[in-house]
């Protein structure tokens, strides 16, 4: 299976892949198996299937020739609305040359509206969904009356005529048998609802859609079933004589529930409740809009789905405190499972989103956290509770030596204060004199302070600095680790310490933000001079009250070897075939400025992140037998510092057992019994010379029901600051690869 996908991704032109993706995007997916089944299902009505395929092809060609965003074009985002227009027009108008011309016009209009609405709504963090389809259909149906060549459709007669023309009386007889097949009533209604997403009304077409949906996503499939049952219950409680027509049930209720419950929101118990809540809202919108639009001779189409989804997503965007129950997907992976598993596998700091700035500790050496986030301390309260105080302590936990009556008796006094990240100096106050020990200056509460701007809405404030110690001025650019000033005891500070907070505005004393630090070593033992083994390395976390923290020392050889800037290319060679053409891996950036490695031969893509302390992969797309996938698993999480190593969670997509993976997918939003982990080890004594090889041994382990299954064991070798080799497995079947920088 992997080899087939590898070849297809290499040989299938991007143009045809984009057409396929136009179909899978109807269910917010990039799954080509689902797309293929949808293509087949759409030809249940031959004219409609041909018109839809032609419209999608025209839209993809137009987007490519027009120079619109290539990533959106390849995803099918600019062409799925044109596909819907092509599928819908034959339901309203009779086949003929005039209908063909109208399909061409409709495809062009749908493309232009997709681009325009994508820019407008996308800038607000919202998808344009099928709004272009609805608007184009209204325009075309309103204008069709003025063209005599466009006759109204007669579905029954033309359906039989089409079949007779294609396959004669035998095909007509087969279609009659299929139409009269005795499906169980509820199942037939559900399948017809799914087929209606393709503008069909056939349980057989719906069966293909259901199979594709289940193949693509167990979570999306379960949400579709939940929505169907929910609508049945709502109509039963409301005393309705029958369930909604198939189109509204599928294209409005079910698709809205899938969108808000599993696609744009990370799947969870709360998101399933959110999906159920969308059903009565969709019912109200449908009941109000359909009669109103009918007066103008227009169908509601999928407008209720669009309005419900946009409403539910927009209110989530407006929350002051996002919380942990309804989490918006930060980067769309076009699969509910992939979105969920990526969220579960990422470090806590990544939850800050795409604008997250990795902040380091603003000092050298080991300091104790003397006041933490809203811990009941004297000053960190209310809107200013998400702040940290630091001081240096000795083995006895004291902050001073001698009598402790002079400022110079305190270990942290006059120690350098560093920039926690790159930024620009916004505010500098340095004229406030330091207090005598035990005294405070409440009039100038913050004392000497420096505020840095790191990104829009991300500022850091460092306060209680020593008087006249500032080395920067407003407007200066600083780099992480630059010395800003010295630690002091100015403002509301009875003894020397450093106050550090993150805030959304540049004003001194602004309300604080809960913001994780990029990485640090932490020990809860009383002595700051602990052996390395007693400390733990944390990523995306906040120091605890009373803990001793320090920045871990860098591992230069690893940092250099895994520094992969955009444009960097690797030639990857099979060691057993040194004369064979090597694979070419190249680093690119996407529209979100996220970096990824792409194999030119297989089309496999692996997204990654890197800062001073960590190299980690965030997502992989492609065949599992690709060499890049082996590298993805071998270097999934590599600390670039000298610190104790620990196992980290992996996305559940690494599970290779079909039945185990599908079972976990079904219950993943509520309960996870499969726990993949990545374990890394390296020599206890790191090589003292950069030229000595450094082996990184990794294992990928899947644990479930008390069992442990090894997915991959590998050794990645670094030498002279470069990647040199990768060995996967053991014995004769082991895979041996070599790396070289490509020119």
TrEMBL record:
Gene3D superfamilies: Ammonium transporter AmtB like domains, Glucose Permease (Domain IIA). Coiled coil: none annotated. InterPro entries: Ammonium/urea_transptr (IPR029020), Dup_hybrid_motif (IPR011055), M23ase_b-sheet_dom (IPR016047), Urea_transporter (IPR004937). Residues 414-503 form the M23ase beta-sheet core domain. It is a multi-pass membrane protein. It holds the Pfam family UT. The chain crosses the membrane at residues 20-41, 47-63, 75-93, 99-121, 128-150, 221-241, 247-266, 300-318. It is found in: Cell membrane. Keywords: Cell membrane, Membrane, Transmembrane, Transmembrane helix. Its main location: membrane. PANTHER family: UREA TRANSPORTER. Belongs to the urea transporter family. This is Urea transporter. It comes from Hymenobacter bucti.
